[in-house]
Amino acid sequence: MSGATGGKTVKVAVTRKLPEPVEARLRDLFDAVFHESDDPLSPAALIERARDADVLAPTLGDRLDAAFFEAVGDRLKLVANFGAGVDHIDVAAANAHGVTVTNTPSVLAEDAADMAMALILAVPRRLVEGVRALEAGEFQGWSPTWMLGRRVRGKKLGIIGLGRVGEAIARRAKAFGLSIHYHNRSPINPHIEDELDATYWDSLDQMLARVDIVSVNCPHTPATFHLLSRRRLELLQPQAYVVNISRGEIVDEEALASMIEEGRLAGAGLDVYERGAPSEKLLKAPNVVLLPHMASATVESRIEMGERMIINIKMFSDGHKPPDRVILGLDDGRLPQAG
Ligand code: DGY
């Protein structure tokens, strides 16, 4: 790797404002170039920045497609993503141009699971609706029939993609008295399955027809785009809820919003959306709790994501294999099938 500033030989281009301790550590270790604003760089600015660097440290929203890797030249050797999901990066194109891609899995799993659990509780118990009613002056005192939601205990939770985050959700949900069901391409380690008392469903369709709450926890890939299609959403019982903290593209958002509006589904708790932000239709739908992609938004998670990213850069630039290399086709058998 080329370039030298004050003895720091590795040039790292960062694309977004990162937590201060993360930027400080990057500054200590590398010849780092930062982006002061919180706005994403334009595609042209991304290319310009990456052309002149050994390592690019992008994040969600920076689209690194085949054209990007074509345009970027030979210097770039590592894309060290700040974040677990890499659906904004064409990993095959990166690898074809000799660029390694890393991400930051694990460190955000517990915080993300807390937020999924919060949605699993908030939607059936009408938490946000209650807060809004109170703030609007509609609370006139306790009533035997007002604000009745649905009991969570005893319900069946169906997790699509029981990986790190899915498992952390399952542990929480079990403690709240939900029974755990999951669909993966193959069953998880039997010890963990026993511990969670989890039921494996080879067929996603069959699981959907039987559960009360669905939690989407698989990565977004071409194979999982609209995995929860209209046809699949129609398999759910009308009293079922959908929770998604993974990626919006996995659910047919238009179909979901229509079905909730028509009373064919009970509601949804979402942190992610097909087009980045929720559609008008979803915003107007009843029984939805919509969050602004904040499942991993804790100070601790974001700093640990930065630390993980730095470990990857350091290992790579010292000539070792970075621990969180994204390897195409390697998904622990957890990635559900499309269809
Ligand atoms: C990720 O890391 O991909 C998350 O979606 C950010 O919260």
Give the structure's gist in a few sentences.
The chain has 339 residues and is of the alpha/beta class.
Major β-sheet annotation: 7 strands, parallel
Given the C-alpha coordinates, what overall shape results? Answer: elongated
> How much beta, percentage-wise?
5-15%
Class per helix and strand makeup? alpha/beta
The total domain count is 2
CATH class of the largest domain: Alpha Beta
Q: Can you count the beta strands?
A: 12
Might you state the CATH topology name of the largest domain? Rossmann fold
Q: What is the end-to-end distance?
A: 44 Å
**Helix-strand pattern:** EHEHEHEHEHHEHEHEHEHEHEHEH
Going by CATH, the architecture of the largest domain would be 3-Layer(aba) Sandwich
Residue share in helix: 25-40%
Q: Using only CA atoms, what is the Rg?
A: 22 Å
- As residue ranges, the low-confidence spans are none
Chemical compounds bound to the protein: (2R)-2,3-dihydroxypropanoic acid
Query: Can you list the strand order of the major beta sheet?
Result: 8-7-6-9-10-11-12
Question: CATH superfamily of the largest domain, called what?
Answer: NAD(P)-binding Rossmann-like Domain
InterPro entries: D-isomer_2-hydroxyacid_DH (IPR050223), D-isomer_2_OHA_DH_cat_dom (IPR006139), D-isomer_DH_CS1 (IPR029752), D-isomer_DH_NAD-bd (IPR006140), NAD(P)-bd_dom_sf (IPR036291)
Protein name: D-glycerate dehydrogenase
Family: Belongs to the D-isomer specific 2-hydroxyacid dehydrogenase family.
GO molecular function: glyoxylate reductase (NADPH) activity; hydroxypyruvate reductase [NAD(P)H] activity; NAD binding
